Amino acid sequence: MTDITKIVPDYLLIGHVAHDVMPQGPTLGGTVSYASYTAVSFGLKVGILTSSQPDEPLLADLPPDVMVISVPAEHTTTFENVYTDGVRHQYLYHRAHTLRPDMLPPAWREARLIHLAPIAYEVDPALMSAFGSSPICVTPQGWMRHREPDGRVRAVPWNAAAEVLPRARLTVLSEEDIRHDPGLEQVFAALAPTMVVTRAQRGGTIYQAGQARNFAAYPVEQIDPTGAGDIFATALHIALHRLGDLDRAITIAARLAGQSVRRVGYGSAPTPAEVSEAFEAVSEH
Question: Whole-structure pTM over 0.90, yes or no?
């Protein structure tokens, strides 16, 4: 049997898988889930450091070739979205263990691309120092959440932003992540070398070296936007690494994320053929 702790991942994801409470039953969620499907379609060897209850059945819904280290916890991180008069209230019923540098096997510290993807303030900021020179992408939404005693999720200040953002090659967040304090966009942009704020069908804004510029969304008819932001961030991180050109990488990521909203569930992740077509499209210009 292969010892996955001895294998160096091409793409290392760190964050909780989620047990999402849905009308149709428990569903696998979390940034690492959609991101893993995306990275696999780019042809990469993917590793996930997460935490969940032992023998969590939802882990079987991850791509079959993904290497998973799951730190045993009493419960898997469990979310539910409850709508009252059209307003969404998010609840966090259970939270698995915090993910720390000492949980990484030595080989995984050599991963070629790293993606820190918290959903429930579970990624220790000390992980920013756990790797060598490999590029790190952060999707920081989970660092701006806190669980109230009744389980309701509320937005909180991100105290480690000044520690994390300057050391990340790429930061990707949605305008929804900072809806509680839109002024954070400029605060974070001043700290991050390269930051992208997505705005759904309105495209988004790139911040780089103090300069801001907008980009357009890929024009499609939306069916289900779930996971599109995770797909965008992962595709952008990989494409930027391969091309070394931010604008072309943005075009690829926007195309793949746009195509994803036409599908539901993990079928929304790009196919290898769509990834190839996206690279071919930018090479023609």
Answer: yes
